[in-house]
Write a structure and sequence with these properties.
The complex is a heterodimer of chains A (427) and B (306). Chain A is built from 13 helices and 18 strands. Chain A is of the alpha/beta class and 427 residues long. Chain A has 2 domains: 102 residues, Urease, subunit C, domain 1; 309 residues, Alpha-Beta Barrel (TIM Barrel). In chain A, helix 1 links the parallel strand 6 and strand 7. In chain A, helix 4 packs across helix 7, helix 7 packs parallel to helix 8 and helix 8 runs parallel beside helix 10. The longest helix of chain A is centred in the middle third of the chain and has 18 residues. The model of chain A has no long low-confidence stretch (mean pLDDT 96). With 306 residues, chain B is α/β, with parallel strands linked by helices. Chain B folds into 2 domains: 135 residues, Aspartate/ornithine carbamoyltransferase (Rossmann fold), CATH 3.40.50.1370; 150 residues, Rossmann fold. In chain B, 39% of the residues lie in helices and 15% in strands. A 5-stranded parallel β-sheet of chain B has the order 7-6-5-8-9. In chain B, strands 2-1-3-4 form a 4-stranded parallel β-sheet, sandwiched between helices. In chain B, helix 2 packs across helix 12. Chain B is globular and about 55 Å long. Chain B starts with 15 loop residues before the first helix and ends with a helix. The chains are: A alpha/beta (427), B alpha/beta (306). The complex binds zinc ion. The site of zinc ion has 5 residues of chain A, from loops.
């Protein structure tokens, strides 16, 4: 294979430089050599026709659970990054709730080295370090060493940092290195043994509920701590209208706060739990139509910066049990772009450029790993066919786990490939 | 006449004509129960397993009696000491039992939705005998049967369910069934035990028993679980009894008789004072007999569906 690739007639989309035009791109040894309409082809070039397709700066999913080390029966870094690659992502940030947790530089280094080995290193794996040792919420993990070893953010995700003093110190300490503290917002004394959103549906089904205030009281508290400490705070998987409102107000006060939402939280509502399908069980839980509407409003006006999947693989055996016993979480990497295109872009809630901000520009800015489509830069691309209609089929997922509530769903718009570190993958 | 579903999972969404059919059929089975020979050959050759993952002597005996009176072969399975406690999944248990050629499964489980799950893994008819705090359809059907016996109808009958609404499958099934049949349903209990969104199910909510008592024809009094006090849901049993207990003194302030129901077992002098439980307007023992008739009707009608 030639080392010079000519991408022909793609729609180049990079909201950072307000680029939006049809062009050719010549990439030599993994670097962008020339961007201009109609570059003449030579016979040693590998030519890729992208007519009608979009070329975007490489997408990043800043919230995934790759399960390695410790839970390799659910996912490995190899299968998780393959899932990411086929989902259109050139980078993922992996959460530290592994076993052992990423609360130590050796685990942070291990995860990155596995990432470099996996699938030729086409997907960059950036670890999120734990906020506290063993993620138990008590003592700060060696944050400085974790950051030095490559951690791009800190989180005890899966669990909140629920002690206010610990959270305060985490924001202060992490603030020294300009990395965000990513909080899984859930006040445990309020969420208790809940398994779904508290409301009419939980009452109708007799399932214990997680009230929306369990998320909101922790966000409210953390926003005050963020303001007080001048730290950097990122809210993981926002799920309620109240949370969107709190974050919107904090952003007006110029707080250093950012947040993300998952595709399932802007697509599904708690009504789907009536099926008792355990692939509708995730934390935070699916909320109501009012919450979905508020989330879409937050995406549109920029209150919500990022779309991230919270990709949470679980094996079939683990999910094929009763609703209370089933673990929280669904896989998301291979449906994220299709859902966002279908639910947000084709419905006019977001422009395509805004979608790229939520999937690439903003998450990469938050964790300090920006990419730009400019001559001289490394070629880091996500290719999208915005109008392709396709049907989700969990059996075709590259992820080791198939726990998705979207099996059989028809979507419009899908990734068709990626390029990173000189490797091109077209599906 | 046939039921529109081959399972009885709950009364949520069950059509009125199905409920009517079960209640009518129960009437003929109740006649049989009052005969000297109480057994009919209706389900001869059918095998029914009572799959009880949660202890409930009353419900199990009621089902077993109904099954035997219909001449079915009965297998009892209780989770305690079984392979379930050794980590076998519900799916494996159910499939193993069905491999023994079972026609119907009666399931009691402490998790909502397990009967629904069961219908996806076995081919038998599934009857929900109580799933977590979700539904207990045969209990609600027997409550409705009892009310119909008292008032000759269900439409516009005013029923208040009193107590721990938030943790009661009996309350939920009664709400679904009674509202479908046109009864006027209210609930009354401490605010901590009234679940969110309940009013959207078409019931009125009251926090003071004295406010509602003069406006109803019947009270369905729920058992208060003692562990709710430990869970911080109400301060003391004494206070609960004073404000939500159904007592003779409280009932005497109302100028019309109120039918008293209770799904059992009763905490005497907590939710219900002894003189009311044993008093002239209590139909609690009638409910027990009606339970067998309603369960016979349910089993019979489900066996006739395909
Ligand atoms: Zn989380």
């Amino acid at each position: 294979m030639s080392d010079i690739i000519l991408f022909q007639s793609g729609s180049l989309m990079d909201p950072q430089s307000h680029i939006d035009f049809v062009t050719d791109i010549l990439v030599k040894d993994g670097r962008i050599e020339t961007i201009k309409p109609s570059i003449s082809s030579k016979k040693e070039y590998q030519v890729i026709d992208l007519k009608g397709k979009a070329i975007c700066p490489g997408f990043m999913d800043m919230h995934v659970h790759l399960r390695e080390p410790g839970f390799e029966h659910k996912e490995t870094i190899e299968t998780g990054t393959l899932s990411a690659a086929f989902g259109g992502f050139t980078a993922v940030c992996c959460m530290p709730n592994t076993n052992p947790a990423i609360d130590d530089e050796s685990i942070a280094l291990f995860v990155q080295s596995q990432g470099k080995k996996a699938n030729g290193g086409i997907v960059d794996v950036y670890p999120i370090g734990a906020v506290t040792k063993k993620r138990d919420g008590k003592e700060l993990a060696p944050i400085a060493e974790l950051v030095q070893a490559g951690a791009v953010g800190l989180s005890d995700d899966g669990a909140p940092v629920s002690d206010a003093e610990v959270m305060r110190r985490a924001l202060e300490y992490a603030g020294m290195f300009d990395v965000p503290v990513i909080q899984h917002c859930e006040e445990p004394s309020l969420s208790k043994h809940g398994v779904m959103n508290e409301g009419l549906v939980s009452t109708s089904l007799g399932l214990p509920g997680i009230p929306s205030v369990a998320e909101e009281v922790m966000i409210a508290r953390d926003l005050m701590l963020t303001q007080y400490t001048k730290g950097r705070y990122h809210v993981a998987h926002v799920s309620t209208a109240g949370s969107v409102e709190l974050i919107r107000a904090a952003k007006k006060e110029k707080s250093q706060v950012t947040c993300e939402v998952t595709p399932h939280h802007f697509t599904l509502v708690d009504e789907v739990v009536r099926s008792f399908n355990t692939n509708t069980k995730m934390n935070p839980p699916l909320r109501t139509q009012g919450d979905v509407d508020a989330i879409k409003g937050g995406l549109r006006d920029g209150t919500i910066d990022v779309i991230a999947t919270d990709h949470a693989p679980h094996s079939l055996d683990e999910k094929e049990v009763d609703y209370i016993q089933a673990p929280f979480g669904i896989v998301g990497l291979e449906t994220a772009i299709g859902l966002a295109m279908t639910e947000l872009v084709h419905t006019g809630i977001l422009s395509f450029a805004q979608l790229i901000e939520k999937f690439s520009v903003n998450p990469r800015r938050i964790v300090g790993k920006p990419v730009a489509i400019e001559e001289g830069q490394e070629a880091n691309f996500t290719f999208i066919d915005p109008n392709a209609e396709w049907k989700v089929d969990v059996a075709s997922f590259k992820s080791k786990s198939k726990n998705s509530p979207f099996d059989g769903r028809i979507l419009k718009g899908r990734p068709i490939g990626i390029m990173n570190h000189g490797h091109v993958l077209l599906y | 006449m046939k039921l529109s579903s081959r399972h009885l999972l709950g009364l949520d969404g069950m059509p009125a004509k199905d409920i009517e059919l079960i209640l009518e059929t129960a009437t003929s089975f109740k006649e049989i129960l009052n005969r000297p020979i109480k057994k009919v050959p209706t389900l001869q050759g059918k095998t029914i397993v009572n799959l009880f993952f949660e202890n409930s002597t009353r419900t199990r005996i009621s089902f077993e009696l109904a099954e035997r009176r219909l001449s079915a072969d009965v297998v009892n399975f209780s989770a305690a000491g079984s392979s379930v406690s050794k980590g076998e999944t519900l799916k494996d248990t159910a499939r193993n039992i069905e491999a023994m050629k079972i026609d119907m499964v009666v399931i009691r489980h402490n998790v909502a939705g397990t009967p629904n799950f069961l219908t996806q893994v076995v081919k038998s008819n599934v009857i929900n005998a109580g799933d977590g705090i979700h539904e207990h359809p045969t209990q609600a059907l027997l409550d409705m049967y009892t009310l119909k016996e008292q008032f000759g109808k269900l439409e516009n009958v005013r029923v208040c369910i009193v107590g721990d609404i938030a943790h009661s499958r009996v309350a939920l099934s009664n709400i679904y069934g009674l509202t479908t049949m046109g009864a006027e349903v209210s609930v009354c209990g401490p605010a901590t035990l009234i679940p969110r969104g309940i009013e959207k199910l078409g019931v009125k909510v009251f926090y003071r028993l004295d406010d509602v008592i003069s406006k109803v024809d019947a009270l369905n009094v729920l058992r208060i679980q003692l562990e709710r006090q430990a869970g911080g849901m109400f301060p003391t049993l004494r206070e609960y009894h004073r404000f939500f207990g159904v007592t003779k003194e409280r009932l005497s302030r109302v100028d019309h008789p109120i039918t008293i129901m209770h799904p059992g077992p009763i905490n005497r002098d907590v939710e219900l004072s002894a003189d009311v439980a044993d008093g002239p307007h209590s139909v609690i023992l009638e409910q027990v007999l009606n339970g067998v008739a309603v369960r016979m009707a349910t089993l019979y009608l489900l066996s006739a569906t395909e």
